[in-house]
Amino acid sequence: MQRLDLIAKTLIDHKVEFVLLGNYGAQIQGAQVLTEDADMAYHRGQENLVRLMAALEEMGARIRFGDETVWLPYSDPLLLSSGDIWNLRTTHGDLDLLYAPAGGGYDHLIQDAVEVEIGDGVVVLAASLDDIIHSKQLANREKDHIALPELRRLRDEQQHQREDPGCPSSYNPA
Questions:
Q1: CA 50, CA 54: separation in Å to the nearest integer?
Q2: pLDDT (tens digit, 0 to 9) for every residue of the chain, 174 residues total?
Q3: Residue 150 forms beta bridges with which residues?
Q4: How far apart are CA 60 and CA 88, in angstroms?
Q5: Which residue of 28, 52, 127, 131 pairs with 21 in a disulfide if CB–CB is 3.0 to 4.6 A?
Q6: d(Cα 17, Cα 77) in Å, to the nearest integer?
Q7: pTM
Q8: Helix or strand or coil: residue 155?
């Protein structure tokens, strides 16, 4: 299991309600994109924040500022509801907690989220490719523009597969 998958597995072990997004969310759905961190939207209910903070403590999460990190007060789970973005470094890699990512937060993303197995029978929820694409379009960063053609290609290929299941997976409409 890859490092970022271990982040997702730890969150699942703690029964955290979350949806993966960004390049990691796209990558586990088959997109050929690179990423160095996991982005996730999370439910802000108090019980979920307690479970999330316990998972972060298990992973030794620290708040990340560039290459520097500072202590995360594990005794205060409600702290996680006080900010829209938490950039963290864990023992398994970097994790960005996003309450309100471009295009919609947890409550929006969960509606069209897809189940994806990441190995060892572990199943996670990932934002739909349409939602990931929309989020990247709204964020309008250069790195997002680089990923968009691959995300659109994969989305179109998967759509074609649903419409014509006998078609080879290397569908290319061009």
A1: 6
A2: 578 999 999 999 999 999 999 999 999 999 999 988 999 999 999 999 999 999 999 999 999 998 899 999 999 999 999 989 999 999 999 999 998 888 889 999 999 999 999 988 999 999 999 999 999 999 899 999 999 999 999 999 998 888 877 766 554 544
A3: none
A4: 10
A5: 127
A6: 14
A7: 0.88
A8: helix
Roughly what angle, to the nearest 10 degrees, separates helices 3-13 and 46-58?
Answer: 140
The label of the residue with tokens 């307690």 reads 50
d(CA 26, CA 49): 25
Dihedral of CA atoms 46, 52, 56, 58 in degrees, nearest 10, equals 110
Choose among 111, 56, 109, 60: nearest CA to 80. 56
